[in-house]
Amino acid sequence: MTVLDEIIARRRESLEARRRELSLAEIQAALADLDDAPRDFATALRGPWVRVIAEIKFRSPSGGVLTARRDPGAIAAEYEAGGAAALSVLTEPDYFGGRPDYVNKARQATSLPALRKDFVVDEYQLYESRLLGADALLLIVSALSDMQLAEYLGVTRGLGMSALVETHNAEEIGRALASGARALGINNRDLRTMKVSLATTERLARLVPPDVVLVSESGILSPTDLERVAEAGANAVLVGTHLMQDPHPGQALLPLTQIPAKPRESATGK
Fold first, then answer.
1. Total-model pTM
2. Of 60, 88, 129, 187, which residue is the catalytic one?
3. What are the residue ranges of helices labelled H in 22-69?
4. Nearest-CA neighbor of 242 among 57, 83, 107, 45?
């Protein structure tokens, strides 16, 4: 069993408890009265510079406790001042130290779109994410069937949100594109070994059409790292551990925000 398998099993268990506290019907009724439109996450990831999605997480399975801070709003404000294009907010509690209310706390402190980063295994979580204030959510290809991917993308768009569809290999990229993904993440971390290699993005980026936003995830520790994935054609990067371990995460972000984006050549050469 991989770390991802373990996390997903725990999320399935906790989902049942959340359903008892607040049903899907109750969430949908509450959404009908919601008047705060989602911010455009996908558009924020394109531009002349490689965009940075700055992540708020307090611990991780590979890095342990990352910081003693527990103030997502203050960290989000520091990220915005440091040039972040968007936020990623962990809400998974057992492995990443997250909480559902962290999304809204981070979002309300900035004008940036916020991605709820969790482990989606049920349609309930899509509606829940919108109620929590998320502008976007993460869908992990290896955790979902093709039918679920297509269905969840449709529901997400219907709610006005974006989805970042995470992949780890060529087969998963094919599945993501077939499902209609418009923002695709390549995770440089091998979830079987937890090892990280930027060569994963360099190898797989050409499989992602230029009209699909490409995000390189994990392993970005310096401008040199960012330049490597920029050369491969990444439109954006997701950076968490490196920033959260710094006493001043907004300042640590600054050197990563001025790397020019490069055109991405597809596998067909177009």
1. 0.94
2. 187
3. 24-31
4. 57
Q: Is 105 a catalytic residue?
A: no
Tens-place pLDDT, residues 170-199: 999 999 999 999 999 999 998 777 789 999
Which residues lie below 8 Å from residue 208, measured CB to CB, with a gap of 6+?
173, 177, 184, 186, 214, 233, 264, 266
Instruction: Name the H helices within the chain.
Output: 3-21, 24-31, 72-81, 93-96, 102-108, 124-131, 146-158, 170-179, 199-204, 223-232, 241-244, 249-253
Which member of 80, 117, 179, 202 is catalytic?
117
| Mean pLDDT score, 56-61 | 91
- All domains of the chain, ordered by start, with CATH? 3-32+43-256 (3.20.20.70)
Q: Is 57 a catalytic residue?
A: yes
Q: How far apart are CA 263 and CA 235, in angstroms?
A: 9
Extract the tokens encoding 253. Answer: 């972000």
Whether 166 is catalytic is yes
Q: What mean pLDDT is predicted for residues 8-36?
A: 92
Run of H or E including 237: strand 236-239
User: Residue 252: how many CA atoms within 13 Å on its side-chain side?
Assistant: 17
The answer on pLDDT for 58 being more than 60 is: yes
| 32 contacts 40 by C-beta, under 8 angstroms | no
Residue 59, CA atoms < 13 Å, CB-side half-sphere:
11
Question: Taking Cα atoms as reference points, which of 88, 89, 16, 23 lies closest to residue 52?
Answer: 88
Q: Which residues of 199-212 are buried (b: 16+ CB within 10 A; e: fewer)?
A: ebbbebbebbeeeb
> Mean of the per-residue pLDDT values for the chain?
94
Catalytic residue check, 128: no
**What per-residue string of b and e applies to 88-123 under the rule 16 or more CB within 10 Å gives b?**
bbbbbbebbbbbbebbbbbbebbebbbbbbbbbbbe
